[in-house]
């Protein structure tokens, strides 16, 4: 596999390197399912999880992935670090550098923070979500989940719905899905799906019925209220009426369309529990499971490029 020192965004991948990561992740998914979870490819390596923003599944799955590959894993969250004492991002980086960290997983509210760190540390930097910019491992785990269920990750119609404007998950998915030759549709109110988001080949819809027609996958996104500067949505109840995914709206998509959500979900706002918990239609739990496998593949690949 080609060398990949950092994973700062889908932007830095091409169809071959993305497919290699998915193939390696698939083999880890099978090993994880068979219970043979312990490997030692990262034995003696140090992984630091540096999270400046809250996270449940991303931080936990990077931690599990690192441990399953035999790395020493240290979790740092802002509330317990000297960042609250006024230390700058780059001072923190220098401190981590002095500890000879091999892999640095970063989540930060500012777009571009992981890229800045990558210039300042010797470690491989992996972007675990930066502002509204990118969340590359989420897009990779989504692609792996799709490929496992549809048998391919090209030629599919994927409707990404809801708060596109504030979503780094949407950005990374748009980049990866279009790069692999899928048809991406963005569906939501004009305040949350600005025309300027348009990328080559991506279609924009403001109506769920039109946007979901013929879709193979329906990917729902959380309303990222913490990133909204003004009230872009009149009320949660109204949002659900027009854009919340329930059985009735899911019926606009293909009969075998599958439902995804990166989590955390706001039940009754962007998605109805009846759809989210329907084992025959919802891939949401498997997305979490594939998160560990994808992060193992990314850590492994970056560590091998950084010896
Ligand atoms: C997402 C994130 O943090 O970008 N969550 C995740 O990583 N699974 C999406 C969100 O916060 O809504």
Break the fold down into its secondary structure elements and pairings.
Elements: H1 15-34, E1 46-51, H2 57-68, E2 72-77, H3 89-98, E3 103-108, H4 113-120, E4 124-130, H5 136-150, E5 157-161, H6 168-179, E6 183-187, E7 202-205, H7 208-212, E8 217-220, H8 236-243, H9 247-250, E9 258-260, H10 273-276, H11 284-305
Parallel strand pairs: 1-2, 1-3, 3-4, 5-6, 5-8, 6-7, 8-9
The protein binds N-carbamoyl-L-aspartate (NCD).
N-carbamoyl-L-aspartate is lined by residues 57-58, 129, 135, 138, 168-169, 222, 224, 262-263.
Quick structural gist:
The chain has 307 residues and is an alpha/beta fold. It has helices at 15-34, 57-68, 89-98, 113-120, 136-150, 168-179, 208-212, 236-243, 247-250, 273-276, 284-305, and strands spanning 46-51, 72-77, 103-108, 124-130, 157-161, 183-187, 202-205, 217-220, 258-260. α1 packs across α5 (136-150).
Write a structural description.
By secondary structure, this protein is α/β, with parallel strands linked by helices. It has helices at residues 15-34, 57-68, 89-98, 113-120, 136-150, 168-179, 208-212, 236-243, 247-250, 273-276, 284-305, and strands at 46-51, 72-77, 103-108, 124-130, 157-161, 183-187, 202-205, 217-220, 258-260. The protein has 11 helices and 9 strands. 46% of the residues are buried. The model has no long low-confidence stretch (mean pLDDT 92). The structure holds N-carbamoyl-L-aspartate. N-carbamoyl-L-aspartate (NCD) is lined by residues 57-58, 129, 135, 138, 168-169, 222, 224, 262-263.
